[in-house]
Please model this.
Amino acid sequence: MTHYPLPTLGLCPVCEGEIRIRKAGTLYFHDCAGEGREPATRLEPTFARWLWTHAARRDWRDNRIAYLAGAMFRGCTRSPNRTPLDVPWTTADELHDHLHERQAARTGSEIRQPYNGGRCDWMCRDVETAAAQYAQLVEQREAAR
Ligand SMILES: [Zn+2]
Ligand SMILES: [Zn+2]
Model:
């Protein structure tokens, strides 16, 4: 299972979108006049931004992190793809809380496994797996500084 590195993202000065930065320091193509320009500012690679880079991966059937990213950012095919700006969580802990809040909003209880009373389910565990991988990348980055 391969993982993506921490993303290099910048704020586009034209559309204010969060866009990946090329090695040369300019913004990737994204259907906007800001393409190829320098970013207004570089963005901290938060857990949400890192997870988001996995959302377009095609190996989501075998990759739990890509599957989680798809579930969080792609939604159903009729809804537009979300970006890290569109989700109410930034960290893995916030995403975990969000899963339980969403469960509570749907069912009136934050228990995600009503048949056995378990508070957490496989999706919570996927968040944990992704969080551990992200923490490792952050650690490596700190060590390389
Ligand atoms: Zn733009
Ligand atoms: Zn949970």
Q: What stands out?
A: The radius of gyration is 17 Å. Residues 8-43 form one domain.
